[in-house]
Records
---
Amino acid sequence: MRSTIVMTGASRGIGRVAAEHILRRSPDVQLLVVARESAVAQMSGELGTGVSYVAADLGSLASVRTAAAEIRERLDRGDLPPLRGFVGNAGVQYTNALTEGPEGFEATFTVNVLANHLFVRLLQDRFAAPAQITITVSDTHFGDFKHNLGMVPGPLWQSPETLARPGAFPEPDTAAAGLTAYSTSKLAAIHLVHEYARRLPEGVDAVAYNPAFVPGTGLARDSGPVARFAMRYVMPLLTLTPFATSRSAAGRYLADVVLGTTKAPSGSYVDRGAVVRSSEESYDPRREHELWEAVERFTEAHAT
Ligand SMILES: NC(=O)c1ccc[n+]([C@@H]2O[C@H](COP(=O)([O-])OP(=O)(O)OC[C@H]3O[C@@H](n4cnc5c(N)ncnc54)[C@H](OP(=O)(O)O)[C@@H]3O)[C@@H](O)[C@H]2O)c1
């Protein structure tokens, strides 16, 4: 079945491997990669046929809106096959909780939560069932030793108005605050997947994908030299244990979810290749409703 899959975070790391799998395994898929202008220039030609690009900085809601408008126009003109997938794989991690985007929202929350939400809402009426939204989350949302060996502090939920703004966490200029912003943003993303599963039209599913700890990607690029060294040369040894996943396996697992090789019901959480429960905290319909209302407000000015 000919189809378009829109994907963010395909320029490197887990997403790059997943994009290569999708293209190799599904020749009928037109992969529409949303990436920074600099990454588009570099990727064009590298990924071969079956790919087209839209430039966007996901740290800016205005940029996401422009990209989504371009995708809608290309679909409406018939330049692309029917839209059957959105993969929100892009993600960031900062060494503070103070980085502010152009619209005044904290940068981790903007890329990991608001950008995906805006894409989902602006593409919602263009999806052709059966379609699936896949959002890359993280098992740091559990906040326990078992899931991240204490490397990342667990989420610290607060009102969405606080979470979305710089300085939401104690000692906001520290790496611990930046990592707390990260795990909390991933919990928020899981909450929204639950809300999408309730709200999206029949036949448009939403799934959260967790790759587990994947050393050696660009995610820790904002860290200091010691952490970057450990991430690059020491942590990869952990892929010999069940605790960590290699980049190639994480990308393949993501492609399996996107292509439906791993069957996952709407609203579910896929840990690598298996549907499992996310944290108990992540199932909270009241909080999810409140978060939905808030992200609708935050993105309102860019949602048409
Ligand atoms: N690595 C892990 O241990 C781990 C564990 C659990 C979950 N995850 C999640 O997996 C996903 C992929 O991460 P990764 O580890 O593969 O990290 P990565 O190598 O840093 O890849 C991140 C991707 O997101 C893109 N991106 C980030 N900010 C962007 C922006 N403002 N505009 C456009 N694109 C932007 C990057 O594009 P550029 O190349 O242009 O920067 C890149 O393609 C993320 O959602 C991450 O949170 C990672």
Note: The mean pLDDT is 95.
---
Amino acid sequence: MWSNSKNGWGRISIGVHWLSALTVFGLFALGWWMTGLGYYDAWYKMAPWWHKSIGIVLLALSLFRVAWRVLQPTPAAHGSSRKRLAAHLGHGLIYLTLFVVMVSGYLISTAEGEGISVFGLFAVPALVTGLPHQAVIAGDIHWYAAWSLVVLAVGHGLAALKHHFVDRTDTLTRMLTTRPSRRH
Ligand code: HEM
Ligand code: HEM
């Protein structure tokens, strides 16, 4: 139920997947909106505070997710061995891009040596600071990687819909529920 099996994803994997999907799209919209705010806007300071706090929580969640993924069995992928390899590489690329976005966000925020306050509860220390043009370069990487992640995620979502409606496999339903499906 909570853990994965050879036949399906468990509640933990399903919950983390959808929570992180929601958070990725939310942070993208928030990041885009907040960088257009003027200095006198009421959200000028608060929006980045939320963006960074939520971003650090997503980073922690994603580290847990990868550990869980490595420790748990996974349901078998469908299709020919070439398609399975493509899906595997695609998911790997999503994970990689996700971490590039989060690490570059961390490096923008800590460029001047300041830690990152997480909801005012604790601060993540600035471990890497003062690299040449750190904030600007990390900022450029963050922007392009965030875009790549969103494009990959939308393509990935469309692929899931294709598996559901065209190929009629249980790929999407097993990411939504732990109940066994009649489809295979
Ligand atoms: C647009 C909405 C989305 C839909 C409909 C969707 C659907 C799915 C489905 C059905 C699977 C299971 C594939 C299988 O069982 O082989 C899956 C896996 C996965 N999804 Fe999504 N997804 C969405 C958004 C996202 C986003 C935003 C991310 C990025 C954080 C993401 C990252 C992943 C990863 C990395 C896997 C592979 C899991 C693993 O093998 O560890 N998905 N997704
Ligand atoms: C998947 C997670 C994330 C997504 C999709 C995302 C997305 C974005 C986007 C679209 C922007 C606007 C960039 C621009 O207009 O140049 C932005 C800005 C920013 N993000 Fe993120 N972000 C994520 C995670 C993080 C994390 C974890 C941190 C730090 C802890 C962070 C820190 C920042 C900062 C400081 C800015 C402002 C950069 C500037 O002023 O140019 N982000 N983010």
Note: The CA atoms of residues 2 and 141 lie 36 Å apart.
---
Amino acid sequence: MTAAAAHGLLAPTNKLRLGTFGTNVEGGPALTTIPTRLRTEWSQVRALAITADRMGLDAIVPVARWRGHGGAHNTHGSTFDTFTWAAGVGAVTQRAQVFSTCHMPAVHPVVAAKQLATIDHITGGRAGVNTVGGWLRPELEMFGAPMLEHDRRYDLADEWTRILRSLWAEDEFDFDGDFFTIRRGFSEPKPVGRPPIMNAGGSERGRLYAARYADMAFVLLTGDDLASQREQVQSLKRLARDEFDRDIQVWTSAYLVCRDTVAEAERYLSWYADEHGDVEAADSALRTMSVESEVLGAQRWQQVRRGFIAGAGGVPLVGTPEMITARLAELSGIGIDGCLLVCAEWEPELDRLDRTVLPLLEQAGLRAPR
Ligand SMILES: Cc1cc2nc3c(=O)[nH]c(=O)nc-3n(C[C@H](O)[C@H](O)[C@H](O)COP(=O)(O)O)c2cc1C
């Protein structure tokens, strides 16, 4: 574990790490119908990964989705598989940590361990895994088994993760659990490094899982004041330290609209998220999420809908480069270690980030000079 602590995302190279989120799904992953949204076309997706890597972004993280949210557009219906996508992205990038997002009930840990080890070899030690328990019932039911009750999904996740780690660390082992039975568990080659585990569980049980296993745990920042957001971040770090004697990174996600003026940024946001937002898809996803997960109370529905359409419910980074830098500095100040970005039109947005925000973040000491 100490050897891995020195490299990749686990190294303290950048105080505030940045990454892209969801460039394997159509819309990527904003719920917008603008004609210039990201498509599942390899040339586009590949170019985007190369851009993010060249800019020095630290992580490239896909969304695991098996079917769309229905309605007229069936947004998120078209998605690249995250493991084979990561192998392709890993082969054309040099520095970024390339994650595979894995629905643990859908992928056997023996298969996942080998796929991730293979990606780790392709990338020279840059693989990572974002473990998800699943909440979108129609997609998990496609696998022919009833979806488990919420906390049982985390019982399965617990077994799954322990098996994954054993496959990476041990020569041979047996495992007898409620969900998995492993006889003479074996996987070679081992990964080059130790691929970091990312998790975005938001419920009490999800937070416990993340505190126990994740190197990077996500918070969906709620509450309007900085003090309560700080407590959200710090309580997760405390949980990991107090219960499991672990220091973990806490990450969040954000949608990015960077323009010369606030008015311009707001106008653009309104164009892609209000005029062209797929409200039907958002309501369908939020309805399922409020039933199947504990991160979303029904009372917050209206409040979160626009953010969900604009960029997976993340923090709005909408404004001038200076405003965006100040907000990111604020997030770093409350203990956020990394932030995954969502853009409606990726290439031009990343280009603006590169030219205007990244230099300011470097000046502020939040990111190392490139
Ligand atoms: C940044 C982020 C990324 C996520 N990625 C996925 C994903 O790719 N696929 C998925 O089914 N769920 C994804 N989720 C949902 C979470 O894994 C988790 O199921 C959800 O937050 C509910 O938490 P709970 O299961 O603890 O109630 C993501 C959530 C966040 C905040």
Note: Residues 150-169 form the longest helix (20 residues).
